[in-house]
Amino acid sequence: MRKLEAFPYHHVLVLGLARSGTAAAKTLLKNGKQVRVNDQQLTTKSTVVQDLVALGAEIVLGSHPLSVLEGIEIIVKNPGISYDNPVLIEAVKRNIPIVTEIEIAYQLVPGTLIGITGSNGKTTTTTLTTKMLEESKQQVKVAGNIGIVATEVAESLTDDETLVLELSSFQLQGTIDFRPNIAVILNIYQAHLDYHKSLENYKQAKYNIFRNQTEDDYLIYNADDSDITTAIADTRARRIPFSTTREVQNGAWSDGEAIYFQNEKIMDVEKIVLVGDHHLENILAAICAAKLAGATNEGIERVLTTFAGVEHRLQYVTNLQGRYFYNDSKATNMLATEKALASFKQPTILLAGGLDRGDDLTGLIPHLKNVKGLVSFGETKEKFNEVAKQAGIPHVLTAENVEDAVQKGYGISEENDVILLSPACASWDQYRTFEERGDMFIQAVHKLL
Asked: Principal localization (predicted)?
């Protein structure tokens, strides 16, 4: 196990367990730190709690009293806990630093660290980068917001292994020294304002990915995003742009026929199996990161000619009687749904709806030109019905849930239609996660067979 050698804090509060908090607490305890754990949900009967007690942790359960701050030098918080939490508000007043688990993981990484963030496309780009390195015979591991706790992976890394981290704004907001050797920032769109309170706060959290970089590091960025190009103006890192609209110096671009990296042709676009124009951005960003970390053109081409997408992200499911089913349950905001709709030229049946966060959905109207039918569900179903009416969509139906929407969508479809689940909303009104929602969609599709 690797040791925390540059972490100067001895008395640590871990606020909120779940997987990342548990991993951070165990790592800190194994490194001789005094750890106090505070969790509102778990009880003393929990195996996780019992394991931490056995390792020497002090446990406070059931509430978040301000007394947990006594003697604390730093807080490692679960990314999902809002900064409105009274303990965190008081910690700020007392000048106690607040970090997330990736700050601990960073201290453990001995070799190359690639960090990838953006409003959309993080998981696809992270997966592509990892696969490109694997196919190039590089030693690589993946973790972070992709669903694998970074600290657990970082503890077992060898010096010649690259760690690829998918990073959310929630994770990045809680960083102090975090510094990837290769940072990737894909795009910035309005998202998670219920957590960050303003678009500017959200942007600043994302920009933490490159804030500590030096002249020895690389910053891969979307040259077509004016917010990003403005934000990185003062970075000390070596800038590596990518663009889907024009040739760029020292980076990756496409002319529509082929993909290039630093004046070298990588492969023809027609060989790529991943559908969707927006995925070209992800592909170019991944090529930049993978090439800088040692990937070969052959390894990159093997991935791009076989990889058809990540689960729940414009994932092809099946062809039934000439209808093409796609699962894009990860589309939890309008922008993601707009990009999904732009991926198809043929008539589309859109299945959409979910948690009502108060968004004005009329912004979708210009993107519904190919939509011949809309089946709505969840809290936003009436909003979607009104949008469909304004857009002049011929077939508008309401469903009880995703499973019912599949049945009704199939009923109004014809041969060569796309039936697309791209909700434009979070899943929490009816499903625990977007993954559960996507799985229900896939199961319902297979019941049609």
From this structure: cytoplasm
Residues in binding site: 118-124
DSSP string of 209-233, one letter each residue: HHHT--TTSEEEEETT-HHHHHHGG
Classify burial at 394, counting beta carbons within 10 Å of its beta carbon; exposed 0-12, middle 13-18, buried 19 or more.
exposed
Are residues 220 and 156 located together in one domain of the fold? yes
Q: How many domains does the chain have?
A: 3
- Same domain? 41 vs 79: yes
What does the DSSP assignment read for 294-322?
T--HHHHHHHHTT----TTSSEEEEEETT
Residues of the chain with pLDDT under 50: none
Q: What is the distance between the alpha carbons of residues 402 and 423, in angstroms, rounded to a whole number?
A: 10
Q: Are 241 and 248 in contact (CB under 8 A)?
A: yes
C-alpha closest to that of 25 among 62, 60, 66, 71: 60
DSSP 99-117: E-HHHHHHHH--S-EEEEE
Would the CA dihedral through 299, 301, 306, 310 be positive or negative? positive
**355: how many CB neighbours lie within 10 A of its CB?**
17
Q: What is the pTM of this model?
A: 0.81
Q: What is the pLDDT of residues 356-375, one digit of tens each?
A: 989 899 999 999 999 999 99
Helix locations, 73-168, DSSP H: 86-93, 101-108, 122-135, 150-154
pLDDT per residue over 376-413, tens digit each? 999 999 999 999 999 999 999 999 999 999 999 999 99
Q: How many CB atoms lie within 10 A of CB 254?
A: 21
For residue 337, what is the domain's CATH number?
Answer: 3.90.190.20
Report the binding-site residues for ATP: 118-124
